[in-house]
From TrEMBL:
Residues 151-216 form the HTH luxR-type domain. The modification 4-aspartylphosphate is found at residue 55. It comes from Kribbella lupini. SMART domains: HTH_LUXR, REC. Residues 4-122 form the Response regulatory domain. Transmembrane segments: none annotated. The lineage of its organism: Bacteria, Bacillati, Actinomycetota, Actinomycetes, Propionibacteriales. This is Response regulator transcription factor. CDD domains: LuxR_C_like (cd06170), REC_NarL-like (cd17535). InterPro entries: CheY-like_superfamily, NreC/VraR/RcsB-like_REC, Sig_transdc_resp-reg_C-effctor, Sig_transdc_resp-reg_receiver, Tscrpt_reg_LuxR_C, WalR-like. Keywords: DNA-binding, Phosphoprotein, Transcription, Transcription regulation. Gene3D superfamilies: 3.40.50.2300.
Length: 226
């Protein structure tokens, strides 16, 4: 099945480069291009793209505002947003994930990494570059209100194993790595992740990361035992 991609960036040359790159990859197709956030939202609704490569800085409605509109629209529930920006700024990481983005990459990403990222988010997984993950952790570390009892109660719906799995997701581990850590099959690890997402009403793994830090399940800078 072909993955339909929408490009949203106000720079024509950048869109042209991404268009050539995406269209040259097997199973990927650019179906539309937007020069600002407003157009991105309109085209998301009309073109039914699977993945939107969304620049943060655009005139008028920026990429973060457009992402919020897209992820809040129930009719676009299957659309994944991959944020692209020149600077992996902590504020952008935090706001992009809160807005519902499924991934966050710098524009300097290598071509093969970008194509891989599109496939990853189209498949329902989250993708954050290591620098973006560090930024997200630092942002949560700076928030003294995280881990309140009210937030922690949100995790009551999870089994002990699901809590453990969510904690590992928040540390950036893939399903295969979680399986190795917990001595499970990759399919079982994925099942635990999916069940946790359903129970916590998380759009994808990126949202699990937000929940894990917001509830205090995982603390920034703290690594779980090997």
């Amino acid at each position: 099945m072909t993955i339909r991609v929408l490009l949203a960036d106000d720079q024509t040359l950048i869109r042209s480069g991404f268009r050539v790159l995406v269209n040259s990859a097997p199973g990927l197709e650019v179906v539309a291009e937007a020069a600002n956030g407003r157009q991105a939202v309109e085209l998301a609704r009309s073109e039914r793209a699977d993945v939107i490569l969304m620049d943060v800085r655009m005139p008028g409605t920026d990429g973060l505002a457009a992402t919020r509109q897209i992820t809040a629209d129930d009719s676009l529930a299957g659309v994944k947003v991959l944020i692209l920006t020149t600077f992996e700024v902590d504020e952008y990481v935090f706001e992009a994930i809160r807005a519902g983005a499924s991934g966050f990459l710098g524009k300097s990403v290598e071509p093969d990494e970008l194509i891989s990222a599109i496939r990853v988010v189209a498949g329902g997984d989250a993708l954050l570059s290591p620098k973006a993950v560090r930024g997200l952790m630092n942002r949560f570390l700076a928030q003294p209100e995280i881990g309140t009892s009210t937030d922690a109660e949100e995790l009551a719906v999870l089994t002990d194993r699901e809590r453990e799995v969510v904690g590992l997701v928040a540390l950036g581990l893939s399903n295969d790595e979680i399986a190795d850590r917990l001595v499970l099959s990759p399919l079982t690890a994925k099942t635990h992740v999916n069940r946790a997402m359903v129970k916590l009403d998380a759009r994808d793994r990126a949202q699990l990361v937000v929940i894990a830090y917001r509830t205090g399940l995982v603390r920034a800078g703290v690594q779980q035992p090997q």
